[in-house]
Amino acid sequence: MKKEVTTMKDVAKEANVSIATVSHVINNTKNISKATRMKVMSVIEKYNYKPNYSAKTLRQQSTKTAALVISSYPDSFVTEMIFAIEERAKEMGYNLLLVNTKENNEYEEKTINLLYSNLVDGILLSPTSGDIQYLHKYTMEKFPIVMINRYEDSIKNIPRVTGDNFQLGYDATTHLVKHGHKNIGFIFTYPNVSTTADRIRGYQQALKQANLPFNEELIIQGFAHADGGADAARELLEKETKVTALFIQNDLMTIGAIDAIKKLKKSIPDDIAIIGFGEFSASHIIEPPITNVVLPPETIGKIAFDTLLNKINNPDYMSHIELPHSMTIRKSCGC
Amino acid sequence: MKKEVTTMKDVAKEANVSIATVSHVINNTKNISKATRMKVMSVIEKYNYKPNYSAKTLRQQSTKTAALVISSYPDSFVTEMIFAIEERAKEMGYNLLLVNTKENNEYEEKTINLLYSNLVDGILLSPTSGDIQYLHKYTMEKFPIVMINRYEDSIKNIPRVTGDNFQLGYDATTHLVKHGHKNIGFIFTYPNVSTTADRIRGYQQALKQANLPFNEELIIQGFAHADGGADAARELLEKETKVTALFIQNDLMTIGAIDAIKKLKKSIPDDIAIIGFGEFSASHIIEPPITNVVLPPETIGKIAFDTLLNKINNPDYMSHIELPHSMTIRKSCGC
DNA sequence: AAGAAAAGGTTAAACGATTAACCTTAAAGA
DNA sequence: TCTTTAAGGTTAATCGTTTAACCTTTTCTT
């Protein structure tokens, strides 16, 4: 599939100048007389000529493209983050490649490997919950990678931007504790992931501080969609845990859980109080309106991209940024 | 920012073979003795060598990258479509570049222009509602573009895959008519877009068939988010239109509209019946559960990508594919 | 008016692969 | 045994830019 496309050579020939001159006109990299410039420009216009990106890249060793590798099915938090990153990339003159590894560790490694082939200048990575030790290879070579949302402590030299998930878990739990709850269920999506671990630490800390016992049975995993939330909620309610409150880490799951609880003829928040994670379009419309603890997806996205840019421009750049959460109080928590 | 990266040359030197041999080993494009192959492989392994993508691309004139250019803020329909496309691309050995033009026509043109620079092999375009006549330039050059969701009739030679939006509008409206509604509001997001136009034609056809008058006041635009839906619904209810049913073209707007209607102390579906567009995670949980007319985002995405592949491999390829919708009946329509 | 500096161009060497064409040597056919 | 064919490699051209180095010619400086 050979495309017959105008090249710089063609333009140069038609305009009766050298290739170098054409390049200089395009990039404004040398003084060019108005006459020549106009001549060249008109030829460019005439043939709708565009410089070949690969050739440019090959010569300049910079693709002006970044990749965003996410792992989970995108809920509204992730979706908003994605588009914030896309926008920021655009602003900074970068293109964005999107890859979803769907929590497939093996595929993730293959992807990073592929991207590493000078396809992109750097990678924004929200890693899978699997083993990501293979990343060491890249940090050694100082290939620009920035972790977003999730991190892995054993891998040094990778900057990251995440939410302050410990505090988030702590605050959400404390809020429920203040409403008098003693048996608080915690429904998460992926284990072995920093987000989950940090929030659970916060949860435990809050209980400890309130002199409440920590019951492992109250912490369970669910699939990251509505049905998964419903299943998890049912499981928790049917166990002998006397659970009276739920802290759910995913918007779709929250929706599912609410549905399931209603179907069990329990009232929210009277029988079961709920705090969800992440603001989404239906948060305030669902009955009852959902209290959420939220992280700012746009801010995280933009800062992450800027961090990546720093890392690209300075291979030794390092930072760990933790963004604070906020809480949107509505009825589902009992307030 | 020069990266010191191993090249094929380095590998060749270290393995004591020619560059060509290394290339042949990597691409399996010639008989190579087992001994040499192993020698080369081990050097590749040792240096974690990856072929330079730009060089490869430059030589082969194919980037194995496609772009998805969407225009609107992504609701769940679009989000699911995006990831279906990303997955399909992956399957077919392509990378996916994502661009959101946010309904900015000027930016859209700039984007297409940029992408055209051999950055991608082809573009999947869901165009803005603005003037897209500039596309003629590209169809002339047979640059592979496929329209997705939206199309523009005046631009020939561009394949497209969309929903059968006429039928969708017709069926949704007819359903409401059968419930006895005579004044059916139609809330859309973007005017001058084929999706909207086709659905309105369907709406009109349904009214005509039922001998109902067409009242232009009942068709209004709203911003594509929850507040926009709320505003539009209020506007319609406050007008002297005696509206008793609403057909809303966007999930967020539907959520907003429901909220607004409830706040006006009207009951759904008794006072106002509602049919939304697109299935989303809260569809069945909202009170009342929402009746939706839905298009299959994954199918549209996958078929669109395959169509683009066809177009890439055969510049004369042409097709107009219309996917059928389905309807998920719940309570909001009065059933 | 002489010398220096600026303006406006050009030449040619990269950048890092792929691949047709060529060259040996070994194996197979007759 | 002689000729053909296959196997295993290499050389060098090519893809389309960028950019340092070089060369004229014009314009300043003093």
TrEMBL record, chains A, B:
Q: Name one Pfam family in it.
A: LacI
Please tell me whether the keyword Protease is annotated for this protein: no
Domain HTH lacI-type positions:
6-60
What are the record keywords, sorted? DNA-binding, Transcription, Transcription regulation
Q: What's a Gene Ontology MF term here?
A: transcription cis-regulatory region binding
The answer to whether keyword Zinc-finger applies is no
Q: Which PANTHER family is this protein grouped with?
A: HTH-TYPE TRANSCRIPTIONAL REGULATOR GALS, LACI-RELATED TRANSCRIPTIONAL REPRESSOR
Q: What is this protein's name?
A: LacI family transcriptional regulator
Species assigned in the record:
Oceanobacillus sojae
